[in-house]
Structure formats: structure tokens, C-alpha cells
Amino acid sequence: MPSRAVIDTPLGHIALTWDDDGLTALDYVSDAPVSTPSPSSGLAAETIRQLRQYFQDPAFGFHLPLSPQGTPFQQRVWAALCRIPPGAPITYGQLARHLNTGPRAIGGACRRNPLPIIIPCHRVVPAHGGLGGYGGATRGAGPRIKQWLLVHEKTL
């Protein structure tokens, strides 16, 4: 049975969802009240600790058990995203060439990323400049959140 908690961050309220296998989702939820996880949830407490560390230090690397649900292709893209270091964004085309696929397919996998920030899809940008898309954020806040994350990591 999945568990959920909502935390306050510099980006607004974020809902964390997890099950016995690991963290399954991170969602931007502007209208949800903050709720603390059960004291028995070590994973939730550790996720919150690591998110706070990331917001203090953009070079911080996450080390959490993750359990995102997706196709084998999406899983492969998400694993590649986790290898992009903070402050070193790459283009959709560069990642596509690395994975022997097309930029649109990379964009689709990024859009379906259930764990933004932790699986850092914000580090993938268009070759022509600009931010590109950023899914997961509510009410059109995606570009603002992606820009915040890139500035936080000192890439813009």
C-alpha cells in the first residue's frame, strides 16, 4: 500500500509517494496541506533529509531506493538522467545519441519522469537554447521550476 507525505520546499509543496520497494513519485502540489510522514517511515524521513540537503547544496547527490514505474525505455532514460552531474546540463540530442534514440523520445521519457528533482530531467535542455519542457509541475509552473533548479545548480 503506497504512503504519502507533503513537504514544504523552496519550490512550494511537494508530495512524496513511496511503497515497500522505494520512492515511487514526487509531485508538485500547490494546493495540498503539509503532512508529516509516519514516524515508522524511515524512507520518507531520509527522502526529506536528502531533499533539504539538495536545496542547501545543489551538488548533493541523491542516494535513495527508487521504484519509478515506466517502460523499459523510460527506465533506461531515467537511469541515464541520474548520471548527469549537477551544473552540467546536456541537450536532448546529446542524450539521444548516447542512448541511440531520438530527441523526441528523450523528451517523452523526461515528461513522464515520476521523480523530478531526484531523477534530474531538468538537466536536459534544447540545443537551440531556452529551457525546453518540464513536466510534473502544476498550473504551467514547469518553466519557472526548471529555471529555478538550473539556476540553483548554477547552470544559467
TrEMBL record:
Superkingdom of source: Bacteria
One annotated GO biological process: DNA repair
Domain spans labelled Methylated-DNA-[protein]-cysteine S-methyltransferase DNA binding: 72-154
GO molecular function: methylated-DNA-[protein]-cysteine S-methyltransferase activity
Pfam family, one: Methyltransf_1N
PROSITE patterns in the cross-refs: MGMT (PS00374)
SUPFAM superfamilies tied to this protein: Methylated DNA-protein cysteine methyltransferase domain, Methylated DNA-protein cysteine methyltransferase, C-terminal domain
Catalysed reaction equations from the record: a 6-O-methyl-2'-deoxyguanosine in DNA + L-cysteinyl-[protein] = S-methyl-L-cysteinyl-[protein] + a 2'-deoxyguanosine in DNA; a 4-O-methyl-thymidine in DNA + L-cysteinyl-[protein] = a thymidine in DNA + S-methyl-L-cysteinyl-[protein]
Every Methylguanine DNA methyltransferase ribonuclease-like domain range: 5-67
InterPro entries: MethylDNA_cys_MeTrfase_AS, MethylDNA_cys_MeTrfase_DNA-bd, MethylDNA_cys_MeTrfase_DNAb, MethylG_MeTrfase_N, MGMT_N_sf, WH-like_DNA-bd_sf
CDD domains: ATase
EC number(s) from the headed UniProt entry: 2.1.1.63
Keyword vocabulary terms for this entry: DNA damage, DNA repair, Methyltransferase, Transferase
NCBIfam families found in the cross-reference section: ogt (TIGR00589)
Similarity comment: Belongs to the MGMT family.
Stated name of the protein: methylated-DNA--[protein]-cysteine S-methyltransferase
